[in-house]
Every structure is written in structure tokens, then in C-alpha cells.
Amino acid sequence: MTLRAAASAPKFMAKPLPAVLRPIAQQSQSWYGRGLGAAARKRTAPQLHEPYRVIGMALVPPMQRGQTDEPGDRRRSHSRLALVGVLALMVLSSSARPAAPLDPATVERTGRPNDFLICPDGACAAPADRLAPSLAAPPEAVLSAWREVILAAPRTVVTTVDAERLMLEAEQRSALFGFVDRIAVRVVALPDGRSSFAAYSRSETGYWDLGVNRRRLGEWAAAVERRLADG
After folding, report:
1. pTM confidence score
2. Which of 114-141 are b and which e, b meaning 16 or more Cβ less than 10 Å from the residue's Cβ?
């Protein structure tokens, strides 16, 4: 019997739902509510106009409030989908972009708060954010220490190592969206067997890095100094 036919049935045929069928009716009510689309309907508990009733052989669910597909709900759902789509495109574009070689000594700064440069005084064409220390170690040992520190970092790969030029490049991805940050290190030989380094880190996506590049290079440079001190 259809719902329309059930609604027009004589009143004497209607009776309250037996207690043994109430759990089944409650489960059916849950399935009925989920079928309307959880993302579109309002997140409010259903308010029943009337209890379940058995009319003839038909089990008729009650009417429910708060399950309308309102324009505001659709706009919010579409906004979330659009945000996810934009973030996915940003990740794909940063991954597909061909990477030009990155040299801290000659790099051109982005002009945005999404990069950081550590460099010895006068060794880089761009202004540095922090002066690099002088290390009591040969250049080859400093380059090896940088490589070991970078490889120990999470979600990080060393992409290039140039032992002759005392340079290396690496990439680190963000934990949540996988955005790529590029890192380049050039070791600088100093007199009397000492060494220093120029290190540059920048985000390939976004305007502001929330201080990620500054913290990264600060922590890695400190780890390099500890590793060299421990021998």
C-alpha cells in the first residue's frame, strides 16, 4: 500500500506501533534521515509530529523537521568543495613546476614573508636574515653534516648533491597538504681550515609561511653545529 493510499485509509484501521516493532521503526527512521543527504540538511535532531503508525500492512514513518535542503547549507557545502579543489590544484601545481637550480649565494628573494636566508657576511647577493657562524671544520665535513641533518628530518628528500661546488638541495613537504618547501645549502671555505655556509629555504606555495622556513633553518643549523662539535 502506498503512503497516499495509507493516508486515505479509514481511521479505524490505524493503531499504535506494537512495542516489538519499535526498534525496527527507529532504525528505519535513521535510514530515512540519512537518505536525505547529511551534507545538505540541517544538523538538528528530528522532531516528530506523530509516532509511527501501522495503517493496514504499511509502516508509515513520521514527518521530520530540520531536513530541508536550504540554500545556506548548499552554499556552505559548495564553499568547502571549492576550498578543497583549490588546495588540490596548489599541491599539483607546486609538484609539476620544473625546479630551476637554487644557489643561496645568488638567489633572488621572493619579496614575501615565505623565505629565509642564512649567509656569511658579504657572501650572498641578497640580504641575509641571519649571519652564518664560523665553524672549526673542513668544508667537506660541514656539507656531510648538513646532508645527515636534512635526511633525518621528516617528509624530506635530498634532491641534489654537488661535492665539487660544496652544494646540496632538498625538499620538505608539509604534513597536512603536502606543500613543497625547497632548501639549498652552499658551504663556504674560510681561511685557516675553517668553514661557514649559506642556507636558503622558501615555500613554493602561498604568500606567508607562518615562520616555517625561519624555524626550519634555525633548527637545522643548530643541529649541524652540534653534530660537528660531537665529531
Report:
1. 0.61
2. bbbbbbbeebbebebbeebbebebebeb
pLDDT per 10-residue tile (average), the chain, 231 residues: 44 48 54 46 43 43 47 59 52 54 96 97 97 97 98 97 97 94 98 96 95 98 96 75
| Domains: count for the chain | 2
Q: What is the biggest distance separating any 2 CA atoms in the chain, rounded to whole angstroms?
A: 107
192 within domain boundaries = yes
Please check whether residue 36 lies inside any domain of the structure. yes
Pairing mode of beta strands 130-131, 115-119 = parallel
Q: Do residues 53 and 142 both lie within one domain? A: no
List the beta bridge partners of residue 58: 55
Print the domain residue range for 54. Answer: 3-60
Task: Give me the DSSP letters along 16-65.
Answer: EPPGGGHHHHHHHHHHHHHTT-TTTS--S---BSS--EEETTEEEPPPBS
Other C-beta atoms lying within 10 Å of the C-beta of residue 173: 17
Q: Cβ-count burial of 67 within 10 angstroms (0-12 exposed, 13-18 middle, 19+ buried)?
A: middle
Clarify whether residues 35 and 123 are in a common domain: no
Q: Is residue 51 located within the same domain as residue 142?
A: no
